[in-house]
Write a structure and sequence with these properties.
With about 375 residues, the protein is of the alpha+beta class. It has a single domain, classed as DD-peptidase/beta-lactamase superfamily (Beta-lactamase, 3-Layer(aba) Sandwich), CATH 3.40.710.10. The chain contains twelve helices and 14 strands. It has a seven-stranded antiparallel sheet, with helices on both faces. The protein has a three-stranded antiparallel sheet with strand order 4-6-5. Strand 7 and strand 8 form a beta hairpin. Helix 1 runs antiparallel to helix 12, helix 2 packs parallel to helix 5 and helix 4 packs across helix 5. The longest helix has 14 residues.
């Protein structure tokens, strides 16, 4: 059954709206939202479906959802804002700001390795208790104490969860604020966006619980299957240490914590607005998030090629995913953003002056960086431009 669709859509993007609706039958969508801005103006802001697996509650305009690694882009913006203000230098050692980090042969590691997934710290070797997932300082202390898995800078590998604790601790050392508080005060509130790293109890009722993906078919490539091949591997520890069950994402503990690589709660509208501002030089209505120089620096390629953690080809700037030859955020070589496990995606296209945000509650699994649902939306979007 075709779900009711709500929101606004400029007539020129009617084919994009149709693609969005087809996702519910083609890809088994339960609830989802899509937003596009052009020149800092919303041209598409639509949502449809249900916020619960039982399909008893319709997705609302203010529904928010966990977007997993799409959060990494928000943490990156925090770091670039500090660099823009002259408070953070990506080329000096991390230990300048975080002295304990010098342990384990890391005294000379530059900050840029943290944002470009070149630090060699994608996982904690020490076995951590489940509650450590919700304790950023505990995880930062463990990372500071250990030796890297590889010589920093010699290769790159996706720091799936540790990215947030590493970047977040630098932000905390510089500002005295957690990365969630800094993001709220410096970015979310000035832009008036509904985006949170660490969710208040007052916002709990608006969250659409994530629906776990179905088990993979025998012929389907799947990250979980790769992890389970060797629970002691670097890959397994990157995702399962601390050991937190997949359904923990719907718990109050998960939502309340600050996990800056994985537990942002937001909607498509907020993501499109944030990235739309970055696509248009970093400012809107007198509020500047980043300078153009900072944005240009952020999207210079730092890492490119086979990933040392994920069985994928990945490409990164300073904190942002960049398009790869097979997985592109549109045709612009300057597009940048981040996707999240399960399917969410947000990006900026500075050439088209475009911001893109897509969120959903029905998770998909597979070995890809851009889920087939947003991939289809991107194709329709650029066909309409």
């Amino acid at each position: 059954m075709t779900p009711n669709i709500h929101g606004i859509c400029d007539p020129r993007f009617a084919p994009l709206r149709d693609t969005f609706i087809r996702s519910f039958s083609t890809f088994g969508e339960t609830g989802a939202a899509l937003s596009i801005t052009l020149d800092n103006k919303p041209v598409v802001d639509i949502w449809a479906g249900y916020s619960d697996a039982a399909k008893t509650k319709e997705w609302q305009r203010d529904t928010i959802v966990n977007v997993y690694s799409t959060t990494k882009g928000m943490a990156a913006i925090c770091a670039h804002r500090l660099a823009d203000a002259g408070r953070l230098d990506f080329d000096v050692p991390v230990a300048k700001y975080w002295p304990e980090f010098a342990s384990g042969g890391k005294a000379e590691m530059p900050v840029r390795h943290l944002l470009s997934h070149r630090a060699g710290l994608p996982a904690v070797r020490q076995v951590m208790p489940p509650e450590a997932m919700y304790q950023p300082e505990t995880m930062a202390t463990a990372l500071a104490a250990q030796e890297p898995w590889w010589q920093p800078g010699t290769k790159h590998g996706y720091h799936a969860v540790t990215y947030g604790w590493l970047v977040g601790e630098v932000v905390r050392r510089l500002t005295g604020k957690s990365v969630g508080a800094y993001f709220r005060d410096e970015i979310a509130r000035p832009l008036d966006v509904d985006c949170h790293i660490g969710l208040s109890a007052a916002d709990e009722a608006r969250v659409a619980p994530l629906i776990p993906p179905p088990p993979p078919t025998p012929d389907q490539l799947d990250l979980l299957a790769e992890i389970l091949k060797d629970p002691e591997s670097m890959l397994a520890k990157a995702f399962m240490n601390p050991p937190v069950a997949l359904d923990a994402v719907n718990s109050r503990d998960w939502r309340a914590a600050e996990i800056p690589a994985a537990n942002g709660h937001t909607n498509a509208r907020a993501l499109a607005r944030i990235y739309g501002v970055l696509a248009c030089g970093g400012a809107i209505n007198g509020t500047r998030v980043l300078s153009q120089a900072a944005i240009d620096h952020a999207i210079v390629e730092q890492s490119d090629g086979p990933d040392a953690v994920l069985p994928l080809y990945t490409r990164f700037g300073l904190g942002f995913m960049l398009s790869t030859p097979k997985e592109k955020m549109g045709p612009s070589p300057r597009a940048f953003g981040h996707g999240g496990m399960g399917g969410s995606l947000a990006f900026a296209d500075p050439d088209a002056r475009l911001g893109f945000g897509y969120v959903m509650n029905e998770m998909h699994s597979g070995l890809w960086l851009i889920d087939p649902r947003p991939a289809a939306l991107i194709e329709s979007l650029y066909a309409a431009l």
